[in-house]
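ok so i was messing around last nite and threw this chain in just to see what happens. nothing serious, just curious
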Amino acid sequence: MQLGMIGLGKMGGNMKLRLEQAGHQVVGYDRNPDASDVGSLAELVDSLETPRAVWVMVPAGEPTRSTVAELGGLLSEGDIVIDGGNSRFTDDEVNAKLLAESGIGYVDAGVSGGVWGIKEGYALMVGGAAADVERLMPIFNVLKPEGEFGFVHAGGVGAGHYAKMVHNGIEYAMMQSYAEGYELLEASEYVDNVPEVFKSWRSGTVIRSWLLDLLDRALDEDPELAKIKGYVEDSGEGRWTVEEAIRLRVAAPAITESLFARFVSRQDDSPAMKAVAALRNQFGGHAVKPE
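result:
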């Protein structure tokens, strides 16, 4: 199958390579001319045979919205645009409506797999019309991991990015749980070899996972994580998950707390903790540490 790929960074570039290794023809466009096969989006569209399929793999938000809008003026009736970035699900309805005015299909694809996807495959959560998804299955079947799992047509437009949003919210909570366990083990006077404890959990335990494998890998490289500052950003999807939990009145305390923990990580000296220390001193005479 022939595919246009816009955005050839860590994910897009590896996805292009995985597809090409399986025999698909992928024409790539990137703002970096050294990585790009063509010089513009117009050249990309002109190089593809109709009906075309174009995968957008650029940063979420305005970069994706503007790319989709530009494609809407270049593509033809019967073509399909796939947004594989981390777009907010509410953007999908807007993008799909815009493209539908020109008879262009729209599929949203939540993609998980990171830098390992080229070898292990990418978990795909897809939203869109059944006919559009079916037409793209030769692409999806190559990108997904081998075996029974790793792909879902989650529903109509927006469902793919919604599923990926919840996936990332769960990921936040899982990572925070491993991190808290790590700190507890490090603080204990009983445990002498924290990295080996995590390594032992990789087989036979109910908490084994790929995230655990990756934490073990990180501890192999830096057993005390001394080279890493405890500062953690959030990509946005954790926030959106919490917002949806509030909107739908669904209790999601673990995911919510894991998001707030990331906010705390960005404070060298938390004003909230200053207030807690001051209160403890006032009501109980507990000692405070001066600056």
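not much to say yet. The longest strand covers residues 105-112.
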